[in-house]
Amino acid sequence: MDTVALITADELGTVRWSTHPTAVLAQQWIVPIMQQGVANFISNVHAQIYLLQVNEKILPLTISGSYINDSYIVSPYCYIPYSLEEIRHISNSALRFVLRCIVRGVGVFLRHAKINETVMVNNWLVSTNLYPDLSQSEIRSVTTFLKDRFPQKVIVWRSLNDAQHTNLLSNFAHEGYKRIASRQVYIFNPAHQQTLTSAMKTSLRGDAHLARTTHYRCTYSCAAQSAKRLESLYRMLYVEKYSVFNPQYTEAFFSLAIERKFISFIFLEDKSIDAMAGYWSIGSTFSTPMVGYDTSKPKEKGLYRLLTHYLLRHMEDTNMVMNHSSGVGAFKRYRGGMASIEYSAVYVRHLPWQRRLPWFIFGTMLNMIGVPLIKAYKL
Question: pLDDT under 70 in the chain at which residues?
Answer without folding.
Answer: 379
